[in-house]
Amino acid sequence: MRHVRIALTAIVIGAPSGGSAQEWTYEAFHADGRPLATASFRLSEASPGKYVGRFTIPNADVCFRGDMAAAVSQEGDLQVVTLTPAMRGCAPLRLVLRADGSGGQRHDPQADGSWAWDGKERGLRRR
User: Fold this and answer.
1) Which long-range CB contacts under 8 A does 114-121 form with residues at least 24 apart?
2) What is the DSSP letter of 92?
C-alpha cells in the first residue's frame, strides 16, 4: 500500500454551519514528495458545533481515510482546523487558513507541543 502525505492550503470564509460544508481541491503527494493526484477535502458540521473533515484521495494513507473529528476556531483573519484521525497511533494535523480566501498552510505537531508549517505550498482552491 502506498502512503500518501497530505498537506493543504485552502480558501475559507468561515466555519460551515447549519448543515453546509466547505470543499476544496488540492494536490496530494506520495510520502517521498512526488505528486500523487488532485484530490479533495471537505469540512462539514456533523451536529451543532461539531465538525468533521474528510479527505478523498486515491491510495490514501490509512490515517486519513474516513471522517476525522475537526476542531474549528477563528484567530484574527485565520481559520484554524485541527483534524484528529480516528485511527489510533496517527498524528493530528492542522490547517491554518486565511479567511479572505487567499491561501493557507498545513501544520504538523512538534515534539514540544507546538505546530509548524510543513514547508510546502499547496495551492488549494475552494470549490
Assistant:
1) 118/7, 120/7, 120/29, 121/9
2) P
Q: Are 69 and 89 in contact (CB under 8 A)?
A: no
Quote the pLDDT of residue 25. Answer: 73
Side-chain-side CA neighbours of 3 within 13 Å: the count stands at 5
pLDDT single digits (tens) 11-52: 333 555 555 788 877 777 787 888 887 888 888 999 999 999
121 contact partners, CB below 8 Å, separation of at least 6: 9
pLDDT at res. 3:
38
pLDDT computed for residue 14 by the predictor: 52
